[in-house]
Structure formats: structure tokens, C-alpha cells
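Severity: low
Component: inverse-folding endpoint
Summary: output formatting inconsistent between runs
Steps to reproduce: submit the following C-alpha cells with default settings.
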């Protein structure tokens, strides 16, 4: 079997790629030299005997998966299932009375429970029916609280490594029943085996020999996309190899920190990672494209990072030839796509600017007042790009985003300054001109974003974008009403603007942490 060079598409964070778009992606990466395409589906695929699994989530039907499998095979690409069999299944637990009996805690399945293994059996039966490959990624990452919920109540304190390892053995037995060859994300296994919360930097590999072995029919996937440190990758690859199981490396093409991509950051990290893989003899590789917090970035926006990874796998990369090849394959200009990286301003997320409340100013302390001009110029630069292939709709979205950010980015800062200066004339101008203009531009961005979404993805999940972007506009309308009431003398003060803005962790791109300091929901699901 040829060494794997794959791409993983996240179809679980509200954005389920339309089958026709999956085919388009498969064709593009096949031309780049990839031979594997993974669909990361937590609950977004039909499962035998499980009508609530993926209900209202835009799940793929069995017929669609079979069709995609056949299509990918016809162009020399293996379509590989990438699912979850322990954690990251929070969406199924919203259906009360359906999956309660197989829940340990939060998004984690209950290890040792017969119902859990019946569910996994149904998953594997469906996978075996729909995919021609026998390879399967069964997840098991980030199950930080495994064994600490219902499992703890039933069984009392247990070694958590034993809990996850025994669960893994049972899952692998079911996989063997269907002749499937599983791989898992290695982080949880390594953390528990090494007794560390952060095995990326604090692993004591001396304890590995003391741990029981994992099942024979398993491969470990070391995932890492946060560093350009070659030595770190070498150290971590060697740590994973010490378990004496096949090791796969998973890098990342960054699409999960807002609406904009991070191609150059992905390229820099990939270069170091793939060099380490070559030196450590790790030959199976794939690049993940995650959709954390709502799949707001197009998966096509990181095509440059994917082409770079495919070429870097072979050795040194000729950047001029790379650009020529990108034009040949994608039908678009490399530099035009790389321009989109500029939306993430010095690692200050576009979502921070867009979602931050104009009165609360939770992130205002991080900005210097130059953002409006920056995004106005960037909008014009994006609009001027002519060689964008079939992705004009995507570039229109990013142009409209920048035009919205050109006025929204410092709206709260200007509002607070005028208020503290006692300048009611400036506040009235803001309320009657700038705030309405911001609403208008955000609406234009919303329409372009909606066009992109419905072109690439199923409609299920876009309701979250409706809520978020509609919420931004309605909040601005509310701020207008408050400002005008203050200007007219109806209000003696604006309470939100009386409170000083304090520095806080500005590293988040997560919507619920940006829009309010209040409570969105107590429900962890």
C-alpha cells in the first residue's frame, strides 16, 4: 500500500460540505498529489438503527457516502471515514432520553457500558457498508474527563489510563469484527500513559515501558499544528514511536480562528513538521482542516497551504514552480489567495473585531486605532484581484468582511472616547451615521457569507450564523437607541461606558466569549 498523503475535512462544526463540493475538493487534492480524503464526521453521517444520530445536523446519508466513495476511487483517492468513539459527541446528548444511558460526562461516551458498544457497533456496520477502505480513524482525542462522571459513580475511582485503554481494546474488537483497521488521535493515550497534562512539553518517556500495551490493530496519530520548531516535532514523533505501533502525523491548514485563513502560518509549521517526519521515518501524513466555532472560514481558502504540503512532502519547494502549479490546478493566482491571510491582523482575529460589543469593549484595549484604514485598504486590494478561478464568491465575502471591519473595528473605541469627553455632538453623529453604516456593511457581509456557505455547505448550521450576525446588527441598533436617549437627555449616563475597560485575555476567537461578559448558556452541550 502507498504511503498516505491525505487531507481531512471537518464536517462536524455546523459546516457539512455538500457532496458535490467534496468531489471538487477530491479532484483538486488529487491533482496536487494527495491520495486520501478524510471526512471528519462526529455525528454527521447516517448510522444504522440510530435515527437521532446527526438529526437536524445535515448528516450524510449512506447513499451519499457510497457515491462519494465510488467517485473518489475513480480518481485515485481513498475516501476514509474519520469518526469519534469516545469524546466530541456532545450533539447526540441533546436528545434527552435517547443517549442518556451511554453518557459518562459532557461529550464523552460511557466506557464499559453495553449500550455504548452497541452504538459503536452500529457505527462500524454503517462504515463497513459505505466505504471500500478498511482504514478508519476512530478519534478518541481530548476526552479530558473520561471516567470522571457516570463511570466514576458506578465504579468508583479507577486508573484513567486503564479506563481508556480497556475502552480502546473493546472498540478495536468491534473494528476487527468488520475487518476495519483503526487509528486514533494519540494525545489522550499519551497523556494518561505518561501521567502528564501536557505531553507536548512535559513527557517522561521512561514510564512508557511500565504501561500495558494497546491493541495490536491500532495506529497512533500524532497531531500538531502549533509550532515551527523542528526539534519539537522530532521529540514528539519519537515519543509516539516508543509505543511500538505505526505512527501517522497530522498537521493543519488553519481555518479555525475566524473567517480568515492562515496559509503562511500553516506553511511555516508544515515545513518543520514534514522535515521531522522524513528524518524520523514517519511516512503516513495528513493535513487537517478544522472548523472550530462554527466553520466560518471556507475550506477552500487554504488551498495554498495544501499544495505546499504536497510539494514539501517530496523535499525542497521551488516557490516559483509552486505558484505556477497552483494556477494550473486551482485556476487562480497564488498571491491572491495568500492575500486573504491579511484578514487576521497580526494574529488579532477578525471575529474579535466583528463580534466585540461596542459598549462592553471587551477587546478594545488590544487595538491601536489604525485598523479602520488597514481594512479599508485591504478591501480594495481584495476587490482588485482578478485571477481567482471559480472562487469569486469567496473573495467577495472577504471584501465585504473587510469593508465591515473598516468601520466596526474601532466603533466602540470612538464611542467610548466621545462619551468620556462629554462630546454629545460626536455621539449623535456616531448614532446617526457610523452605527447605521456599520449595520449596512455587516448586512452586506452577511449576504456574501450566506452565498459562500450555501454554495459550499448544507444549510443546516447556518442558522448559527444568522443568530450571530443578526445579533451583531441588532445590538448596534440597541446601542443607537441608547446613544440617542443619552444625547436627548432622557438618560443621564450610559452605564456600560462608565465602567473602565480592563485588559483581559484577548487570545480568543470564540463567539460566546467575545460578545458578552454575561452568560450565554449554562448548558455544556
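Observed output (run 2 of 3):
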Amino acid at each position: 500500500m502507498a504511503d498516505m498523503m491525505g487531507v481531512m475535512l471537518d464536517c462536524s462544526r455546523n459546516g457539512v460540505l455538500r457532496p458535490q463540493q467534496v468531489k471538487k475538493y477530491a479532484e483538486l487534492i488529487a491533482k496536487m498529489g494527495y491520495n486520501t480524503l478524510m471526512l471528519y464526521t462526529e455525528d454527521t453521517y447516517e448510522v444504522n438503527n440510530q435515527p437521532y444520530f446527526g438529526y437536524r445536523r445535515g448528516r450524510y446519508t449512506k447513499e451519499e457516502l457510497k457515491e462519494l466513495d465510488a467517485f473518489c476511487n475513480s480518481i485515485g483517492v481513498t475516501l476514509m471515514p474519520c469518526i469519534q468513539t469516545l469524546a466530541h459527541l456532545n450533539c447526540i446528548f441533546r436528545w434527552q432520553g435517547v443517549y442518556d444511558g451511554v453518557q459518562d460526562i459532557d461529550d464523552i461516551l460511557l466506557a464499559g457500558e453495553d449500550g455504548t458498544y452497541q452504538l459503536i457497533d452500529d457505527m462500524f456496520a454503517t462504515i463497513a457498508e459505505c466505504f471500500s477502505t478498511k482504514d478508519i480513524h476512530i478519534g478518541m482525542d481530548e476526552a479530558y474527563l473520561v471516567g470522571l462522571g457516570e463511570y466514576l459513580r458506578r465504579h468508583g475511582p479507577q486508573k484513567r489510563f486503564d479506563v481508556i485503554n480497556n475502552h480502546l481494546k473493546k472498540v478495536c474488537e468491534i473494528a476487527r469484527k468488520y475487518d476495519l483497521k483503526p487509528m486514533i488521535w494519540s494525545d489522550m493515550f499519551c497523556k494518561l500513559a505518561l501521567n502528564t497534562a501536557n505531553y507536548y512539553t512535559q513527557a517522561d518517556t521512561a514510564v512508557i515501558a511500565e504501561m500495558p500495551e494497546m491493541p495490536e490493530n491500532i495506529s497512533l496519530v500524532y497531531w500538531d499544528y502549533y509550532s515551527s520548531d523542528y526539534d519539537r516535532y522530532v521529540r514528539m514523533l519519537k515519543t509516539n514511536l516508543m509505543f511500538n505501533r505505526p505512527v501517522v502525523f497530522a498537521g493543519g491548514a488553519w481555518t479555525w480562528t475566524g473567517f480568515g485563513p492562515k496559509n503562511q502560518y500553516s506553511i511555516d509549521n508544515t515545513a518543520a513538521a514534514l522535515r521531522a517526519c522524513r528524518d524520523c521515518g514517519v511516512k503516513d501524513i495528513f493535513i487537517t482542516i478544522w472548523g472550530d466555532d462554527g466553520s466560518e472560514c471556507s475550506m477552500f481558502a487554504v488551498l495554498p497551504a495544501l499544495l505546499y504540503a504536497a510539494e514539501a512532502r517530496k523535499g525542497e519547494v521551488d516557490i516559483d514552480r509552486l505558484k505556477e502549479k497552483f494556477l494550473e490546478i486551482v485556476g487562480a493566482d497564488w498571491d491572491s489567495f495568500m492575500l486573504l491571510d491579511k484578514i487576521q491582523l497580526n494574529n488579532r482575529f477578525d471575529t474579535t473585531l466583528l463580534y466585540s460589543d461596542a459598549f462592553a469593549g471587551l477587546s478594545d484595549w488590544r487595538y491601536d486605532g489604525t485598523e479602520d484604514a488597514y481594512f479599508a485598504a485591504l478591501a480594495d486590494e481584495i476587490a482588485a484581484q482578478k485571477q481567482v478561478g471559480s472562487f469569486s464568491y469567496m473573495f467577495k465575502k472577504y471584501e465585504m468582511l473587510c469593508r465591515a471591519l473598516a468601520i466596526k473595528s474601532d466603533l466602540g473605541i470612538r464611542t467610548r472616547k466621545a462619551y468620556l469627553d462629554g462630546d454629545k455632538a460626536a455621539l449623535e453623529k456616531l448614532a446617526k451615521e457610523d452605527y447605521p453604516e456599520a449595520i449596512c456593511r455587516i448586512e452586506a457581509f452577511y449576504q456574501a457569507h450566506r452565498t459562500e456557505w450555501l454554495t459550499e455547505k448544507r444549510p443546516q448550521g447556518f442558522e448559527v450564523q444568522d443568530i450571530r450576525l443578526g445579533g451583531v446588527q441588532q445590538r448596534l441598533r440597541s446601542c443607537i437607541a441608547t446613544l440617542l436617549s443619552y444625547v436627548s437627555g432622557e438618560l443621564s449616563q450610559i452605564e456600560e461606558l462608565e465602567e473602565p475597560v480592563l485588559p483581559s485575555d484577548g487570545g480568543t476567537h470564540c463567539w460566546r466569549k467575545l460578545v458578552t461578559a454575561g452568560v450565554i448558556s449554562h448548558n455544556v452541550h
